[in-house]
Amino acid sequence: ILMYVGVFFFSSRRRHTRFLPVSWARRCVQETVYPTLNLTQLLIQELKDQDTIVIPMFGNHEAFPVNVFDFKNDRESVFLRTLADSWVPFIGQETADFFAKYSYYSKYYVKYNLKVVALNTQACNLLNWFLLKDASDPGKMLKWLISELKEAESNNQNVYIIGHIPPGDECMGKWARRYHAIIERFYKSVKMQFYGHTHYDHFEIVRTLESPKKPVGVIMIAPSVTTFCGGYNCGLNPSFRLYHVGQANMYPLNYYQYRLNLSKWNDMPNVKQLQWDVAYNFLEEYNVTDMSPQTFEEIAKKFSEYNGTLRKYINNFYSGLEDIIRFNQDTKKPEQRIKDNLEKLFKGKEREFFCQTLEEHHLIDSCRQPSMAAIFDQLGYMILDILEGEWISEVEEAVGL
Predict the structure, then answer these.
(1) Neighbours of 199 (CB within 10 A)
(2) Over the stretch 87-133, which tens digit does the pLDDT of each residue have?
(3) In whole angstroms, how far apart are CA 386 and each of 176, 177, 248, 379, 381?
(4) DSSP string across 172-205
(5) Are the CB atoms for 253 and 284 separated by under 8 Å?
(6) pTM score, two decimals?
(7) Which of 117, 223, 334, 391 could form a disulfide with 239 if both were Cys (CB 3.0 to 4.6 A apart)?
């Protein structure tokens, strides 16, 4: 069957201050989420006659200030209620009410024997300073996740997990470690995990925490529709992804990556309608036969040297980097010179790309990079440890791992 997995990343901004009257604060929130509401209404209108499942979840840019979300009081209540009301056509009133109260939710689809768990990854956002109040399990979401997965396991249900910030990227390492342990425990039920946030096209492998390391899950990170990125030669080609899944067990069989080639369309300014191209499909691109965790690990192992597989991965990582170079530098540059430029840029960074494929890379000494992100990550751990002490053992006891 064909199934769309939709994780929306909105770019609205929300003002909130406790010094405003409640009615005025509510009006500010509602006005600043208009882009979200308008998009939701557009989707409802476009999809009203189609049998399409839409699974919404917000990211880290909805709150104001950016990255901030408070799990400890009702600061986010108006924001959550506004989103919940607009999502009722997608997830139903009961699920929307649960989301408005807790900021996360699950939805079971009988037709597919599929439970979708939508996580609020502000619970691990390294830049969310409200986590100083409750770093171990904000909103008790991990405890709830375990109960949801236990129920799915007991009922022999298939599970998808969706969220915004991938546990291996800009996510508090200790929270990610607890999440990692949960996935390892329930890997037979969790068929796939879908995330975004980075704007890049890549994946992370979840391996057993104890040696010998074995792959037990894959975090799929789809590239963005926006062109913004924080890496080389921005911007990116807009992209979206279509998964093919097996109806018997809802396991992904293949995916098709669609891309809007800006190099091509910028040379044709008078075209009235743009055409999205299939940039690649996973099985053919990487010459594999399935999407199992073992297959992804075999792909990652090929990153030990700069070869054809790694070159493809880097090109896709940046949503068609070869097209971007061709457009930004010289549209008439011969293909060999483009290949040489790519090799010059990325040869010697094989280890970096390999480490990015490991969800637990922040725990591996050889993968630690002297980057600002790594420094902020470690600083975050230090601050939380000082203010709240070591909490991993407390989480283990609290959630029964």
Answers:
(1) 23
(2) 999 999 999 999 999 999 999 999 999 999 999 999 999 889 898 88
(3) 19, 19, 49, 11, 9
(4) -HHHHHHHHHHHHHTTTTEEEEEE-SS-S-EEEE
(5) no
(6) 0.84
(7) 223
